[in-house]
């Protein structure tokens, strides 16, 4: 019967996959003010978009792109001052994280990571059969560096995963602490820097020069405002990266995305101005939230702030959604029960959010 055949078809799927859950943000209602996915609030300026349309016109859509976007890789090599052979460009940094998982994790491979951690990494380790050794946070959700060092000494992980600034907390790890972890790790250390452009300092980039075990993961989705195009890049020692190439999906980056990224890299002033405005927005949101009675925001080096209020997150989200504002419930992370997250938008969006929040807290349904 069809039912039996379906049973058999499903039985062919690996248990690690069947026991999991898909990564879904959900499709939130269309809302005029969208502050729930840490995106950039600005699309590219219209003249630039028109220029890109012209450029798209000249591209042969019927031809495969190169296995790897050479021009973009060279532009990135210049941008971060690293040999092109040590860079993989991918279809979003999330996909490159899967590449690392595929290359490194076998059944039972130990992986150390702090908690709370961007949920995708747990999913990647689990899907590949790895064993997660998670290190709980210290007070105020801080990275427990001593705990990480101890877990590394105890479990000798093939892979340590750090995200700095961290999503979901917004906290950045002190560069000396990152180095201590890197120095102690026996295998590879993947450092996700999706939000590094919003943080003070230069992040973990200097460690690349001294530690061949470091892999930096960056994205065009946040500071560069290209979440809709799917572009990320991974940087590491060329010999390590050459191995990761063997696990990479071919033709990962399409011609349109490459063209847009190249154009944007030629306009650093635009990106820098937007980063400055987002950073100011985050500071403003933090101060406004901290000034409200019973509202507890956490300091952030990313483009978002997490905070707690006396309201249940779902109640707060519903009240804000009625006013056309979307933020995110973070209660899915056990350490973040009761927390919600708002990313910095345009100044007027941030102001509208704070006005709506005050009304929601005052009981305005
Ligand atoms: N890493 C982290 C920690 C993130 O929070 C995000 C955004 N959700 C990303 C990476 C972005 O991934 P991508 O480059 O695939 O858009």
UniProtKB/TrEMBL annotation:
The modification N6-(pyridoxal phosphate)lysine is found at residue 222. It comes from the Bacteria. GO terms for molecular function: histidinol-phosphate transaminase activity; pyridoxal phosphate binding. It is an enzyme of class 2 (transferase). Pathway: Amino-acid biosynthesis; L-histidine biosynthesis; L-histidine from 5-phospho-alpha-D-ribose 1-diphosphate: step 7/9. It holds the Pfam family Aminotran_1_2. It catalyses: L-histidinol phosphate + 2-oxoglutarate = 3-(imidazol-4-yl)-2-oxopropyl phosphate + L-glutamate. GO terms for biological process: L-histidine biosynthetic process. Residues 33-356 form the Aminotransferase class I/classII large domain. Its EC number is 2.6.1.9. InterPro entries: Aminotrans_II_pyridoxalP_BS, Aminotransferase_I/II_large, HisP_aminotrans, PyrdxlP-dep_Trfase, PyrdxlP-dep_Trfase_major, PyrdxlP-dep_Trfase_small. Keywords: Amino-acid biosynthesis, Aminotransferase, Histidine biosynthesis, Pyridoxal phosphate, Transferase. Its cofactor is pyridoxal 5'-phosphate. PANTHER family: HISTIDINOL-PHOSPHATE AMINOTRANSFERASE (PTHR42885:SF2), HISTIDINOL-PHOSPHATE AMINOTRANSFERASE-RELATED (PTHR42885). Belongs to the class-II pyridoxal-phosphate-dependent aminotransferase family. Histidinol-phosphate aminotransferase subfamily. HAMAP family: HisC_aminotrans_2. Homodimer. This is Histidinol-phosphate aminotransferase. It comes from Rhodothermus profundi. The gene is hisC.
